Amino acid sequence: MPNVFVEACNIVPAFTGVVVDTDTNQTGDYVCLKDYGKVGVLYAKAAGTNTDIPTLTVYQATSTAGAGAKVATVVDTVWIKQLATTLTGTPTFTKTAQTLASTVVGNATSDTEVLMEYFEINAEDLDVDNAFDCVRVDVANAASAGTSYACLLYLMLDPKYPGATAVDCTT
Question: Where are the domains of the chain?
């Protein structure tokens, strides 16, 4: 068993260091869960403009090229860190339950504050009967002219074959 996090968890960027606003909503890349039990999704953003409340939407597909893409209703728990200017004053995440959904919508002050949101998607919760084993997460802000710098990372968890190279899910 590795004792370094990055030896036990593959980290894949959906997108990094970009501006998310109403003109440039971000479409994440797809990741394949064929070799993983679940994926953790970590979204982090800088303080933004009033009314720029982020909405994260989960999609599933049968390949990393997006074949057969459709929304995935798989999120019922979100962990949040949030504060006005810096997260150093927020040592722990707050666990928040939501009705099972395909979206994670920020709260009333998530627009103007620094924010980190984390949730997990279990491979078994996808439409596995129809061979859906790939996911992506997109981020959009509410309609305003503001912007917010953000990144979204996938943490590939519970590998079926620890230490092995992930399979190519492009087909």
Answer: 16-159
Whole-angstrom Cα distance, residue 116 to residue 79?
Answer: 8
Dig out the tokens for 89 from the structure.
């004053």
Smallest CA-to-CA distance from 87 within 118, 114, 112 is with 114
- Closest listed residue to residue 48, CA positions, set 141, 112, 116: 112
How far apart CA 32 and CA 137 sit, in angstroms, is: 13
Domain 16-159 sits in CATH 2.60.120: yes
- Count, residues in the chain: 171
* Nearest residue to 155 (alpha-carbon basis) of 6, 19, 34: 6
Tens of pLDDT, residue by residue over 114-165, are 888 999 999 999 998 999 999 999 988 765 556 677 889 999 998 887 665 5
Backbone angles phi, psi at 77, to 5 degrees: -140, 135
Q: What is the mean pLDDT of residues 83-108?
A: 85
* pLDDT confidence of residue 85: 75
